[in-house]
Each structure stands twice: as structure tokens, then as C-alpha cells.
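Thought: the user wants the 3D structure for the chain below. I'll pass the sequence to the structure tool as-is, report back what it returns, then summarize two notable features.
Action: structure_tool
Action Input:
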Amino acid sequence: MAKFQTFLRSCLLDSLMGYAQQLDVILVSAKLSELLESNTYQTFRVTLNKMEEGYKQVRKNPYTDMLSEIVLQRSRTFRSIYHVIQSFLYSDDDAERDAAQKLLALFNKYKAEFAKSSYSGASGMVSSFIEDVKQEEYTDAVATLLLTAKLQQLIRNQTEYGEVLLKSIAKDAESNKTVFASSIRKRFMMEMRDVLLFVETRAKESPDSVWSKLNKLIAIHNTKLVKSEALRQAALKKKRESKKNKE
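Observation:
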């Protein structure tokens, strides 16, 4: 129990709230009046309500909508460059046609991935595209198709995205840190521990009772959380390593 409590303290608010809400469903479903009418459970339930209210308040990141708007603008700029390139493919001017074919070949390296990637994935694609198109072998083609202004717009979109993303990440970290350190979360953790100990104690006193079955369900619930957190951490690690390799 002590080890699991330590683990819970390290969980992000999202994971903790999901765990606590499902735990409450399990407790209520057992229909044990001794538990549900106890001060231990009632105290836990009141504080869970307060946690849920606070959780809804801190989840709104003020930069989320801003990021979405920047991503939309970046996508429009990216696609407008593509349409300009396409429009020159059938030009009567050999230089324009050659420039369009050259840039289209480069563009097609990124177009599919850009369309299906997440925000961060698309950002990596755009950064790579910008670095490539700025190479000497493409500068004449960009100038020939008068794409310099649009390319500069894409660079501005990308720079703005990076700046706002950093602010968004900092805000998320601030919110999690604030809630993690707050007195209500600490109190909630203690009250949830008391509920778990309440059930565990009754289960030990009556090994073949409903209490024992409830305790086993809670143990399964605990194991699921540990596994899901392990998968989440592994996914985050893989994402960080992938980003590092791209850099």
C-alpha cells in the first residue's frame, strides 16, 4: 500500500483524477452500506467533488486556441505554396516550368506526412521543408516562382508556433505543479488512502466476504493504473528520443 501511495503522488493530475473517479465507481457498485455511510468514505467523496471542480478549472490552457489558430494559418500558407507550384507546372516559360517541377519534387517529400501528422509532427516536417528549400539548389526556383514572400510567411508561422508552444508547455507545467503542491490534493491523497485501508482491513478480517472481492477489484484497478502510466511514460520517452534524433 505504501509503495502504491508513493506512486500515486507522482502521477499527473489527469491520471490521478481518472483513477479516483473510477475507484469511486467501484466502491459505490459494491453497495456496502458500512463503507458508503462511513465518515471515511463520506469525507473522501466530498473532497473528490472539490477536486473535480478544481480539475475543470485548471485544465483550460489559455494558449490552446492560439496554437490551433497558428497551426491553421501555417497549414494554409504551406498549402498555398503548393498550389502556386502546381500552377506553374504547365507554364509556357521553360524556366518557370523547370522551377515548379524542382520544387514540387521537394514538396512531395513532406506533403503526405504534413497532412497526417500531429501538431508537433507537422512542425518537424515544416522545419525540415524550410531548411531544405533554403538550400542554394532551390533559391533560384523560389525566386523564379516569386515564392519568397510566401516562404517568409511560413517561417513566421513556424517561429510563432514554436514560441507559443513553449508558453503552452510552461503553463501546463505550472498548473500541474500548483495542483500537485496544493493542500487539497495532499488532503485528498490522505483521504483516498484511508478509504483503501478501510477496505483492505475489512478484507483481511473476512477473507471470503464481499469485502475481499472488493479489495481484489481495487487491486486490479491499481494494476491497470500502474501499467497505463508505464505505457504513457514509454510513449513520452519514445517521442522525446524521436524529436532528438530529428534535431
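Final Answer: Structure generated. The chain has two domains: 2-59+206-246, 64-169. The two ends are 42 Å apart (CA to CA).
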